[in-house]
Automatic annotation (TrEMBL):
InterPro entries, alphabetized: Ala_racemase_N, PLP-binding_barrel, PyrdxlP_homeostasis
Modification type N6-(pyridoxal phosphate)lysine: residues: 25
NCBIfam families: YggS family pyridoxal phosphate-dependent enzyme
Family label: Belongs to the pyridoxal phosphate-binding protein YggS/PROSC family.
CDD domains recorded: PLPDE_III_YBL036c_like (cd00635)
Pfam families for this protein: Ala_racemase_N
Source organism (scientific name): Winogradskyella vincentii
Name this protein carries in UniProt: Pyridoxal phosphate homeostasis protein
Record's keyword annotation contains Transferase: no
Length: 219
């Protein structure tokens, strides 16, 4: 199957209100361009430098999503162009994004990453930490950051019941926080292995890599 065929077959099954982020980390520009030529305009990367390099050489109508963990000292490199940052997990990171966005006269859409997996390795905040951030004086003063929803990653497991309960929990957090943050419009959950389940649980943004581009080689 080609990248174009993979994309078309995934998109043909998606409900209209679900946005597909094509996760292109580790993949060469030539392969991203195959997706672009098939109509894909939203790409997700997890390393800032790699995203900057691809942004520099690729068409300017692409929306770049940073889906990985963000180090504060690197926010400045993506602030001029990044379209959404999925994994905000602290007030300090939000403040740095605000500061850099301000320099470019931009308002950057962000999601708060909620820790839903049982594994230690996954980043993210608790629901109550997210609640406090959204209610903070600091967020009120961050005029150049819009927090428009939540993101989460389920445990890496074959146990569908466990994944479903983690997605259900994230959806309940989303609904609860949205009730006091009407700007919320994005729930980013679901990857190649679990995006159908995620959509059934209420996701409206999926991040799909290997099902589009094939498996990744990190060497
Ligand atoms: C790599 C990655 C994905 C995509 O994973 P696939 O299993 O290849 O679809 C989604 N979200 C995040 C945060 C990732 O780092």
């Amino acid at each position: 199957m080609s990248i174009k065929n993979n994309l078309q077959s995934i998109k043909s099954t998606l409900p209209e209100d679900v946005t597909l982020v094509a996760v292109s980390k580790t993949k060469p520009v030539s392969e991203l361009m195959q997706a672009y030529d098939a109509g894909q305009r939203i790409f997700g990367e997890n390393k800032i430098q790699e995203m900057v390099e691809k942004h520099d050489v690729m068409p300017k109508d692409i929306k770049w999503h940073m889906i990985g963990h963000v180090q504060r000292n690197k926010v400045k490199y993506m602030a001029p162009f990044v379209s959404m940052i999925h994994a905000v997990d602290s007030i300090r990171l939000m403040e740095e994004i605000n500061k850099q966005a301000m320099k470019h006269n931009r308002v950057i859409d962000c999601l708060l990453q909620i820790k839903i997996a049982k594994e230690d390795s996954k980043f993210g905040m608790s629901k109550s930490d997210a609640q406090s951030l959204l209610n903070s004086k600091s967020y009120a003063e961050c005029t150049n950051v819009n927090i428009v929803g939540l993101m989460g990653m389920a445990t890496f497991t074959d146990n569908k019941d466990q994944i479903k309960s983690e997605f259900d929990y994230l959806k309940s957090c989303y609904d609860e926080l949205k009730s006091t943050n009407p700007i919320f419009n994005t729930l980013s959950m679901g990857m190649s292995g679990d995006y159908n389940l995620a959509i059934d649980c209420g996701s409206n943004m999926i991040r799909v890599g290997s099902s589009i581009f094939g498996s990744r080689n990190y060497n």
